[in-house]
Write a structure and sequence with these properties.
The structure is a homodimer of 139-residue chains. Chain A is mainly β and 139 residues long. Chain A contains no helices and 8 strands.
Chain lengths: 139, 139
Amino acid sequence: MGAPEPPPPVRMELVPIGVARTEAGSVPRHWSASQVRGRLLIDPEHAAGLRDIRPGERIVVLFWFDRSPAFTPAHLVQRTPRAGAEKGVFSTCSPVRPNPVGMSVLRVLGVSGTAIDVEGMDMLDGTPLLDIKPHHEEA
Amino acid sequence: MGAPEPPPPVRMELVPIGVARTEAGSVPRHWSASQVRGRLLIDPEHAAGLRDIRPGERIVVLFWFDRSPAFTPAHLVQRTPRAGAEKGVFSTCSPVRPNPVGMSVLRVLGVSGTAIDVEGMDMLDGTPLLDIKPHHEEA
């Protein structure tokens, strides 16, 4: 009797739910330092999922760092631009990470159909969006 | 001359960076309601990326809802178990969403090699981990 087969790896593939739009040519490194306004254009097939998003609230947005270089072991420790110190990647908000998924907390300015106007953008124009979650520190 | 080809879709595939371990048979629906303790076992190849994670701090953990049913349009509006009201999926923390990525904010109890002991678990034993980010509401 041979050794048991290892379980097949879970396949984890993402689909875009929309795209970020902003006229800003550059964006702050972190949402908490950003007053940049922009728009989240969600694909119409997901319109019904947006029905409870209200102006004034904060939302958590997950997105794909589509213009970041590929992650290599050399990126496990990175020099942060602000502090200038070397830090382990999991203690930074660098876009170069094993899974290039970004997270921002944005303020909703308005919702019009499947377009969500937001403030606090730190993503580039054209960035693929992955998810929107409610932002609450309490359940 | 024919119409221009559309750009190829971005391929967004994730890799596990480790796995969540907990002895709890069930977990709260949301980390903010959880005192469950557990352990994040990070793959040794990423050890250097953990060097600045300290006991007492809070970390943002992204993970894959590997036991959730596939998302369909019927899940765009869902009844939440606590409030009992119907809500658009992007205003819920349901594990059934277009991209089944979960986000938790956990408190670090200790770090030993590539094992991070945490409190506030709302993920099941064996859940694939995707990312760890620093938790700070200010830059």
